[in-house]
Amino acid sequence: MSIKPLQTHTLIAVKRPLLWLLSFTVIACIMLILLKFSFDYGRNTAGFDSADSSEYINLLQSQLEESQAEIIETERRATMLKRSSQIDVDASEQIKDTLAQAQDEVLELKKELSFYKSIVAPEQGGRSLAIQTVQLRKNENGDYHYKVMVSQRGRNDKLARGTVSVRIKGTKKGKAVTYSLSDVSKDVKTPMKFGFKYFQKFEGVMNLPAAFEPESLHVKVNPSTAKIKAIDEQFVWSDLTAGGV
Predict the structure, then answer these.
(1) Beta bridge partners of 149
(2) CB atoms within 10 A of CB 12
(3) How far apart are CA 125 and CA 122, in angstroms?
(4) 154 contact partners, CB below 8 Å, separation of at least 6
(5) 3-class SS of residue 65
(6) How much is the pLDDT for 225?
(7) Which run of H or E residues covers position 11?
């Protein structure tokens, strides 16, 4: 007959679970209180003062706000000064351009006034011809609008007749080249004849060949009568393009 080992079971019964829960809560609270006490003790030992810290934080915040305000004000002033400076520069340039234009207009008016005075009250003496005006204006296409005016001086009770020839001298690829006005302008009829009592203008558009660099413009006036002297004058190209003669 075999004997079976005796099996025993231990049964632990927890009585009053609410008491255990209350005890655990009390212990946890005590630990938190101890931790808080240790933390405060450490801060006090290190010289920490919450009132002073709050005041210092407020001071830093105030300084930060003041610095930000100063930056904004500085940027605003810089922008205003930049705009003001640009406005001053633009206004100065505009005034200079207006003044230069006014001076050119005054000079041109003086020339015209002198010219028309000579027509109304011509000089006494023999008749003569003059190249009154030579102008060049470059347009947006790179061509040149030209104007040549020939006038009669002295006694102008008779018509002055003759021809006008215009030549342009310069260089092309390092070589000296001369073109007649009829070579570079479709507005010219050869020969360019004149017949006037006071003055006559010749106008048109000049289209210069590529790679040609003009240096001077020659105007020759050939009267049909031997009593009036011929005129042959040379004008520097850069002077003409700067405002005319």
Answers:
(1) 133, 201
(2) 4
(3) 9
(4) 122, 123, 124, 125, 126, 127, 128
(5) helix
(6) 86
(7) none
Judge whether 232 and 218 are in contact, CB under 8 Å.
yes
Q: Is 89 left (phi over 0), alpha (psi -120 to 50) or beta?
A: alpha
In this prediction the pTM is: 0.54
Residue among 200, 195, 113, 203 nearest 151 (CA)? 200
Residues 244, 135: contact at Cβ < 8 Å? yes
Integer angstrom CA distances of residue 125 from 30, 115, 128: 133, 17, 9
Cα–Cα dist 194/228, whole Å? 14
Measure the CA–CA gap between 170 and 213, rounded to whole angstroms. 5
Residue with tokens 């190209």: 237
What's the CA gap between 108 and 216, in Å, rounded?
Answer: 22
Q: How far apart are the first and last CA of the chain?
A: 151
What are 95-146's pLDDT values in tens digits?
A: 667 666 666 666 666 666 666 666 655 555 678 899 988 999 999 888 999 9
- Residue 216: closest CA among 188, 175, 176: 176
Q: Which residues of the chain form beta strands (DSSP E)? A: 128-138, 144-153, 160-172, 175-180, 192-196, 199-206, 212-223, 231-236
| The pair of three-digit structure tokens given for residue 203, joined into one six-digit string | 């106008």
Length of the chain: 245
Helix and strand totals (H; E) in the chain: 4, 8
Contacts of 156 (CB under 8 A, 6+ apart): 119, 122, 127, 197, 198
Tokens of 73: 């004000």
